[in-house]
Amino acid sequence: MRRALASALLILALAAPAGAARAAAGFAGVPDGAGPFSDAGGARSFGTSGVAIQNPAEAGISAMTSLPALTALPIDEPALLAKVSGSGGAPRGALNSERARVMLQSLTIPGWGQLSTGHPHAAAVFGTIDLAIWISYISFQVQDAMRTDASIRTAQQFAGIDLRSRSEEYRRIVGSYASSDEYNQLVVYRDAASQFYNDPAAYREYIDKNSIQGDMAWSWTGPEAFDRYRAQRKDAERAALRANTALALAIANRLVSAVHAAGAYGRMAQSHSLRLEVTPDLSGKSTAVRVGLGASF
C-alpha cells in the first residue's frame, strides 16, 4: 500500500512540471487511445503521463537548442515512505520499532536478530559463542559444587566438624586456624583484652560469649589434611569466580550482538531503494523523454 501511494505521488509530481512546460513551449497532449511512445503528428509521446514533446522545429524552438542530458535520479525509499506516511524525515540511523525488535531479539538470544535481518553467518557466530559461554558457566558451577562438597567431607573426616549447615565465613575460619582453641586464643582473647583490659568481669563475659566450644569446635589431625582443605576451598572459590566471569561474558555477547543486529538492520533498509529514471530518446527526428520508476532489493 505504501509503495503504491509513493508511486502515485511520483507520477503526479512528474505531470505538474510537464504541464507547465507544455504551455510555455507549445507542447500538445496525446489523444486518448494512443499507445506508449506513439508517433502522432510528428511528435513522439509518453503515453502513460499523457505528455508529448513536439518536434523542436514545429514548436518554434531554435535548432541550436537541445535538451540537457538527463540521468537517473536515485530516491531514498525510507525518506520517501516517511514523507508519504506523514512520519517526517527521521535520521537514517534512528531507533524505530523494527530496529528495536531486532535488538531485543539479540539481547534475548544472541544471533536471533542477525538471523531476522538475513545474516546467517553472523547469527551462527554469536549463537556459538553464547552456547560455549553457557557450557562453561555450567561446568564451573559443577566444579564449584563438587570442590565445596569435597572440602566439607575433608573437614568432617580430619577436623571433626560438620560444615554442611555452617556459613561461608565459618568455613573460612576453619581453614584459617588449626583448631578452635587456636582461634579462641588468637582472636577472642585478644579482642577481650583490647576492649576490657581494666574490667575482669566484662573480660570473662566476652570470652564466654564469643568463644567457639561444643559441637562447633574443631581440631585438624595434621598439616596435610589442613592444607588439603585449604586447597579445596581455593579451587571452589576459583571455579565460582570463573562462573561469574562467564555470566559477564554472556551479557557482553548479548550487547555486542544487539549493536551488530541494529547495524545489520540499517544496511538491510538501505539496500532497498527506489530510482526515478529519466533518459532522453534522440533516435528519431523528434525528441522524447523516457520516464521510469525502478526499485532495487
Question: Which short descriptors sum up this protein?
Answer:
9 helices; single chain; alpha+beta; about 300 residues; 7 strands; 4-stranded antiparallel beta sheet; 2 domains
Rough shape?
Answer: elongated
Fraction of residues in H or I helices: 55-70%
Tell me the fraction of residues in β-strands, as a range: 5-15%
What is the total tally of β strands? 7
Describe what this molecule looks like in 3D.
The chain is an alpha+beta fold. The chain folds into 2 domains: 2-88 and 272-296, no CATH class; 120-267. The protein is 58% helix and 11% strand. The chain has a 4-stranded antiparallel sheet with strand order 1-4-3-2. A hairpin with a 2-residue loop joins strand 2 and strand 3 (43-46). The protein is elongated and about 120 Å long. Mean pLDDT is 74; it is low at 18-73 and 83-90.
Write the layout of secondary structure elements.
Blueprint: H1 2-25, E1 28-29, E2 39-40, E3 43-46, E4 51-53, E5 73-75, H2 77-85, H3 97-108, H4 112-116, H5 120-158, H6 168-174, H7 180-195, H8 200-210, H9 223-270, E6 273-281, E7 288-296
Antiparallel strand pairs: 1-4, 2-3, 3-4, 5-6, 6-7
Helix pairs in contact: 1-2, 3-9, 5-9, 7-8
Summarize the structure.
By secondary structure, this protein is an alpha+beta fold.
